[in-house]
Amino acid sequence: MSDSNNNTYFFLTGLPGLEAVYTWLSIPLCVVYVASLAGNSLILWLVRSEPSLHQPMYYFLSMLAVTDLGLSASTLPTMITIYMLGLRQVAVEVCLAQLFFIHSFSIMESSVLLTMAFDRFVAISSPLRYGTILTNTWIFSLGLAIVVRGIGLHIPVPIMLKKLPYCRNRLLSHSYCLHPDVMKLACSDTLINSAYGLFIVFSTLCLDSVLIVLSYGLILQTVLSIVSKVERLKALNTCVSHICAVLLFYIPTIGLSIIHRFEKRASPFSCVLLSYLHYVLPPLLNPIVYTIKTKQIRLKILQLFRRGGISKRDKEHH
Known about the structure:
This protein is mostly helical. The protein is built from 13 helices and 4 strands. It has a two-stranded antiparallel sheet. The protein is globular and about 65 Å long.
C-alpha cells in the first residue's frame, strides 16, 4: 500500500544499538564537523593568500577542499540533529535535495582525485614541461568539467525518485539520504532508477579508480627508471598524500556500494559505520594528511601560528 509523495516524510537512522548514548555521540560529531570546516577553509585561505602556493598542485588541493566542504555541509547537519536533538524525520523534498548534493559532491571528489593523479604523473614524468602543460586555463577547464560532470549526472536522480510511490515503511538505513537507500523504499518497479544509478557508479567512481590505478602504474614505471635512489624516494614521497586521500575515499565507497546492491543480510551497524567512513572521515582527514605530508603547507601553517604567537606576545609586552 502506498501514499502520495506530497507531505511525505522519511525517517533517518543513527548507529543501531547505541540510542542510549546518542547525546554523547553528538559531541564528537560536532567536533568533527567544526574541524572539517576549519581544516578545509584553512587550506583554501592559505592557497589563496600565499603567492608561493599558486601552483597547479595546490589549485587541485583547493578543489579537493571545496568538495570536502560540500560533503560536510551535506551530511553532518542531519547527523547532528539525529544525535543531539533526536530528530529523525526529514521531508521528502529535503531528502531528495540532500542526496543530490551528497552524490554530486562525491562524484566531484572522485574527479578531483583523478585530476590530482594526472597532476602527479605530469610532475614526475615531465617536470620541465609541468608549467606549460597544466596552465591556469587548463586547470580552470578541468574544474568546470568536474562541476558539470558531478551536477549533470545527478540532475535526473531526484526527478526520477520524486515520481516513485513509497510504501508506509519509510525508514532509511543511514543518517542522511542516499540514492540506493531511498530507492529501495519504493513500492513500484525501480529497474530504470537502479540501472541509471549503476551507470553513474560505473562511469564515474569505477572509471576514475581504474584511471587512477593506471596513472600510478605509469608513475611507478617512470620512478623505477630514475637512477638515483634518493630521487626515486623523493618522487614517490610527493604522491603519499594523494594515495592516502584515494584510499580514504574509494575503499569505503566500494564496500558501501556492494553492500547496498548485493548483500541483503549485512549488519545495519556495519552499513551505517561504513557510510560514516566514506562521507565523514575524508573531509576531516584530508587537510590533516596534506598538512603533515606537504612541506609547503606545513611551513605556511607553522609560520601563521608563529606570527600569531609573536603578535600576542607583543600586545602583552605593550
